[in-house]
Write a structure and sequence with these properties.
The structure is a single chain. The protein is of the alpha/beta class. It has 2 domains: 245 residues, 3-Layer(aba) Sandwich (Rossmann fold); 42 residues, no CATH class. It is 41% helix and 21% strand. The chain contains 11 helices and 10 strands. A hairpin with a 2-residue loop joins β9 and β10. It binds adenosine-5'-triphosphate. Adenosine-5'-triphosphate (ATP) binds next to β2 and α1. GO terms for molecular function: ATP binding; ATP hydrolysis activity; ATPase-coupled transmembrane transporter activity; cobalt ion transmembrane transporter activity.
Length: 290
């Protein structure tokens, strides 16, 4: 499902003394099946964009197109429902939204609300718990008897149960330890790859943007100021610092090493694994030359 923001502008509390313009003429195209990261300093407008993506907010001016549906200021509430079904949002701490007595009831709540027959919804729930890495026995448990990481997986299964075409991740690993963070981010990446799920990640983590995204957009003071691949975006440390953003640690490390050694490696590495494999190839080449 292609997504297109065209001159998207938004103000909170318009026409009141508390009016606050949060987005200014944002243009952004997100291709179906891509993994788009949106990064930016705090207050730059990321969450405001995110809330337009499943029509929790409507533009003050401009438009946002999701598949064949165009949302503008005048769009009626009833026309937004199909969009909310097709775009799933995983908010920070999604487990705070769990409320049913059992995991099963929580996962089937959304689909049944949209008219999916109970048996079909239950079948789907059984597949989904496995997909998010939990044993089937968890379905009969209370979500509140699970660990934080397990609860988060249940909440993710609940979002996936709606069979979204697009999934929007708002700092989905907040509060998890490094291992839990990686597991959840890897899970979303697998879903993105296996199901061709258009994925939009709103994050403060440059490491995650570099590792998972194939396109990055930088927000700054309500404007989309730069778009490109992770390699393009993270090649320019100076421009990023103008937007009060850092490059991933591994890029700093690589640059420092190059400066000290007085030479350049053949490419800029975005992750530790990429760097390790480049170094081992590079050493092998040197050995072969001896
Ligand atoms: N409900 C609101 N009412 C008024 N102003 C708001 C509201 N929500 C956000 N803003 C303002 O809109 C601007 C953009 O905020 P937004 O939350 O979209 O930024 P953000 O990039 O997501 O920030 P963060 O990284 O801290 O979550 C900020 O100036 C913020 O203070």
């Amino acid at each position: 499902m292609d997504i297109k923001l065209q001159k998207l502008s938004f103000a909170y509390a318009p026409g009141t003394p508390f009016e606050k313009r949060a987005l200014f003429d944002v243009d952004l195209a997100i291709a179906s099946g891509s993994y788009q990261a949106i990064i930016g300093h705090t207050g730059s407008g990321k969450s405001t964009i995110l809330q337009h993506l499943n029509a929790l907010l409507k533009p003050t001016a401009g438009s946002i197109q999701i598949g064949d549906k165009v949302i503008t200021a005048g769009k009626k509430e009833k026309d937004l429902r199909p969009i909310r079904q097709k775009v799933g949002i995983v908010f920070q701490f999604p487990e705070h939204q769990l409320f049913e007595e059992t995991v099963l009831k929580d996962i089937i709540f959304g689909p049944m609300n949209f008219g999916v027959p109970e048996e079909e919804a239950m079948e789907k729930a059984r597949d989904l718990v496995k997909l998010v890495g939990l044993p089937e026995a968890v379905l009969e448990k209370s979500p509140f008897d699970l660990s934080g990481g397990q609860m988060r997986r249940v909440a993710i299964a609940g979002v996936l149960a709606m069979e979204p075409d697009v999934i929007v991740l708002d700092e989905p690993t907040a509060g998890l330890d490094p291992r839990g963070r990686k597991e959840i981010m890897d899970l979303f990446y697998q879903l993105h790859q296996k199901r061709n799920l258009t994925t939009i990640l709103v994050t403060h983590s440059m490491e995650d943007a570099a590792r998972y995204a194939d396109q990055i957009a930088i927000m700054h003071e309500g404007r989309c100021v730069l778009t490109g691949t992770p390699r393009e975006i993270f090649s320019d440390i100076e421009t990023l610092s103008n937007y009060r953003l850092e490059v991933p640690q591994i890029i700093h490390f690589q640059k420092q090493l190059e400066q000290k050694a007085g030479f350049s490696f053949p490419k800029l590495c975005l992750t530790e694994e990429e760097f390790a494999s480049m170094i081992s190839e590079w050493l092998q080449e040197r050995r072969n030359q001896l």
